[in-house]
Amino acid sequence: xxxxxxxxxxxxxxxxxxxxxxxxxxxxxxxxxxxxxxxxxxxxxxxxxxxxxxxxxxxxxxxxxxxxxxxxxxxxxxxxxxxxxxxxxxxxxxxxxxxxxxxxxxxxxxxxxxxxxxxxxxxxxxxxxxxxxxxxxxxxxxxxxxxxxxxxxxxxxxxxxxxxxxxxxxxxxxxxxxxxxxxxxxxxxxxxxxxxxxxxxxxxxxxxxxxxxxxxxxxxxxxxxxxxxxxxxxxxxxxxxxxxxxxxxxxxxxxxxxxxxxxxxxxxxxxxxxxxxxxxxxxxxxxxxxxxxxxxxxxxxxxxxxxxxxxxxxxxxxxxxxxxxxxxxxxxxxx
Amino acid sequence: xxxxxxxxxxxxxxxxxxxxxxxxxxxxxxxxxxxxxxxxxxxxxxxxxxxxxxxxxxxxxxxxxxxxxxxxxxxxxxxxxxxxxxxxxxxxxxxxxxxxxxxxxxxxxxxxxxxxxxxxxxxxxxxxxxxxxxxxxxxxxxxxxxxxxxxxxxxxxxxxxxxxxxxxxxxxxxxxxxxxxxxxxxxxxxxxxxxxxxxxxxxxxxxxxxxxxxxxxxxxxxxxxx
Lengths: 335, 226
What we know:
- The complex is a heterodimer.
- By secondary structure, chain A is α+β, with helices and mostly antiparallel strands.
- Chain A folds into 2 domains: 186 residues, no CATH class; 71 residues, Alpha-Beta Plaits, CATH 3.30.70.3040.
- Helices cover 73% and strands 7% of the residues of chain A.
- Chain B is 33% helix and 27% strand.
- Chain B contains 7 helices and 10 strands.
- In chain B, strand 9 and strand 10 form a beta hairpin.
- The radius of gyration of chain B is 17 Å and the shape is globular.
- The interface between A and B is medium-sized, with 32 and 31 residues.
C-alpha cells in the first residue's frame, strides 16, 4: 500500500476502477472517520443503556451491589471528615497550664502572664488568680462547704496558655520553654491524649484508604462478572463482527458503556442511600451532641464529594468492564 | 488475487490439515474448492480469512503477505473479504436490514449511504421486501441470500463461501450459485468450498480438489480434464 495516493486517484477513473474495485484498504478522510467514531460511541451509549433497561431487575441488582460496595468507604470517609471538624475544635482547646509559685502576689502574676504572652509560640495567655481558681474549683466539684472550711487558699495562681502550633512536638517544646520563665513553678500539658487523637486520626485515614481500595476492587469484580456474562451471551455476535472486520475497540465499546452505566447507576444509588442515611441519623446524633453541650453539623458529601463519588464509580465500572472484556475477547475466536 | 506458496498447516503440532498447497487465483476468477469433509477446505478458507496462520509457506492475498499483517491491521484486511457461511451466521436479534448493514456499520459508513447500499444489496438478492423481517421469519434459502447480501454489501474484492448450499435443496442451491456467478461477472473474485459435485460439474468453473490436506487436482471443468 505504498502507492496509496496514485491508487486513490485511480478510483475516479471508472475503467481502471472496475476490475480493481475494493482491492485496496478503503481510505476514508480523517474527518469522516472521526464522525463515524463519535456516531458509534453515541449509538453504543444508547444501545447499552437500552440493554440495561431491558433487564431492569438484573441491572438494578448489579447497581445495588456496586452501591453497597461504595457506601462503606464513603460512610467511613464522612465519619473521618466530621471527626476532623471535632479535631480542630479539640486542637483549639489544647492548652498548657502554667502554675506559678504560691509565694507570688497578684501583681507579679500579671507581669508573668504579660511575659508569656510575648513569647513567640504563644497564641494567648489567660491569668487565673488563686481566688478565681478556687471559685472554679468549688463550682466544678460542688464542695463549697468543705472548701470554705479551709483557712487559706491552697491553690496557686495559674496561667492558661494556648499554643500557636498544636502539634505534640511544638507543644512539648513550648512547655519546656515556659518552664524556664522565672516565677513558674510547673507546666502541665496533657500530650498523651493529643498524641492519641493524632494516631487515631491517622488510623482512621488509613482504614478509609484501605477500605476504599478493597471495595473499589469489589466494584471492579462485580462489574467484571456482570460484563463477563454479557460477553458470553453475545458470543455469536462478537464472532460474526470479528469475522467481518470489526476492531477490538469496536467490539469492546458497547460493553465499556454498559460498565460505565452500571458504575454511574451504582454511584447514584450510593449517593441516595448516603443522603437518606444522613437524614435518618441526624436526629439522634444531634440529640447526642446536645447532651454533651456541643453543636454538631452532620457531615455531607457536598458538591465536590458527590462529583468525586459519581465520577469514580463510573470510571470503576468502565475499568471493570474493560478488564473483563479484554480477558474474554481472547477466548472468543471465530470458529 | 490469491496465491498459496508451499502452504502447510498443522494443528497441535501433529495433525496435518494442509500440506504443501500451491495454487493461485487470478483477479475476477471463480473457483470451487472441493473434497470430502475433513479434506482441508475449511482450513484453507480460514487461512485466507486469517483466522489461522500457516505453519509453513506463504499466502498472498491482493498482494499482501497476510502472515505479515500486524494484528491491528487484520480487521481492515478482513473488510476486503466477503464471507458466506453454511449456517449464514445472521444475528437473530436484528432485522434483515441491520444484519446486512453490519459490515457498513463496522466500517463507519454514513447511515444515509449505508441504507442506500443495503437496499441495493437486498435488491440484488431479491429480498428487498423483507428488510424488516427477523432472520427467524425467513426460509433457509432466504436466510442464505441475506448472508450473501451481507457479504457483498461493502463490495469486497474477494468473496469466500464455505458450503453455502450445504443445507439447501438442489433448486435453491442452483439459485444461490447463480447469484455468485452474477457477482463474479461484475469483477468479484469468488471462491466457494462445496462438496456438491454434481452442481459444481454443471457450472463449469475451475475446481481445486483437496484430499487429506493435499491439493490433488486443479482442473478447469470446461476442459473436461478429469
